[in-house]
Amino acid sequence: MERLYAASIRMHHPLTKPARHALYHRPAARNRIWIAYRNLPAPLLPVYLSAWTTITLARTVRGGGLSQTLRGMREG
Q: I need a surface site. Which of 38, 46, 49, 69 has the fewest CB within 10 A?
């Protein structure tokens, strides 16, 4: 099987928000916490999680999905 790299080809995808799906907020919050616990050293966990909690809550208050985000954080 031959593969060809064509740098001149342009791809255009429609701009969409991942949060348009009802199931987006819960898994995103849960997975962010799982990944932090798996990969960060213990001293950095409170700093990382508090920063992302602040950012995520600010986004969900503006864009909706607060209850699903909090549910995902509990699951994480």
A: 38
CB atoms within 10 A of CB 56: 20
CA distance 42 to 45: 5
Residue 16 CA, distance from chain mean position: 15
**23 pLDDT above the threshold of 70:** yes
The answer for residues whose C-beta is within 8 angstroms of residue 52's C-beta and 6 or more apart is 32, 36
Is the pLDDT score of 15 beyond 90? no
Give me the pLDDT at residue 20, please: 65
